[in-house]
Specification:
Length: about 230
């Protein structure tokens, strides 16, 4: 039976131990059912922290009472870092400016840095049309969750491979160009689906080819023999 690594307990478990998630790449949640249940219980039983008498908004820098802030359970005091008045002003600003205007800025919910709008991916469900997390933080979070890998480790592997795919030896600009935006996409992280071990960095065609060959060396060898035979016949 197929297995998957839980991002919380770091154990490989059968796929029936994971809940379904339609928009995920493999159709399953990142955490197993047991860890999800334990996380919900811990969140429910955590002690309630009374909000401060005054909280400083990170935009206007004024101390305001708690009722001037919306609730956010991810924060320590369960309040957003931006007051309601500043949120309203920013929403009005984004409504007047298109998402790709460099004058529009947004604060990343992870690094808490105010960055231009081109650092964020578009998201139609958000009020300002942009994701809450900037692209660098989103990629760092994805590498850690999916492969238990830091951005510095990715850069080291990219230097070791001289910025080229580990299989076809072509630079990432050769095969990894987005047809819509024209931007160069980073090399994909190739890993063993059984053990979770990271093997190298591949371009998109080579990464898809390994998946199509089911990571089976015998099938890959037979494919190579097949191509050589028909090439010699031609």
């Amino acid at each position: 039976m197929d297995t998957k690594k839980c991002v919380y307990c770091k154990q490989f478990k059968n796929i029936d131990k994971f809940s379904k998630l339609t928009y995920a790449a493999d159709g399953l949640q990142q955490a197993c059912k047991d860890c999800n249940k334990a996380s919900k219980i811990k969140k429910k039983n955590r002690p309630k922290i009374s909000p401060p008498h005054l909280k400083i908004c990170i935009i206007c820098k004024f101390g305001k009472p708690p009722h001037e802030f919306n609730k956010d359970m991810s924060e320590i005091d369960c309040l957003k870092t931006i007051c309601r008045n500043c949120i309203s002003k920013r929403t009005a600003m984004y409504a007047e400016l298109p998402c790709d205007t460099p004058n529009a800025t947004k604060i990343c919910s992870l690094c808490k840095v105010d960055k231009p709008s081109n650092f964020f991916t578009k998201h139609r469900k958000e009020n300002d049309g942009l994701r809450k997390v900037c692209r660098p933080c989103d990629r760092a979070r994805m590498l850690m969750k999916s492969y238990n890998m830091t951005v510095s480790r990715y850069q080291d592997m990219l230097k070791e491979q001289d910025g080229k795919c580990a299989i076809c030896k072509n630079p990432q600009e050769f095969n990894n160009v987005n047809n819509k935006s024209g931007k160069v996409s980073p090399l994909s992280v190739d890993h063993c689906h059984k053990t979770g071990t990271v093997r190298g960095l591949l371009c998109d065609p080579c990464n898809r080819a390994l998946g199509a060959l089911r990571d089976d060396p015998k099938i890959a060898e037979n494919a190579a023999i097949y191509i050589r035979f028909h090439k010699s016949v031609k």
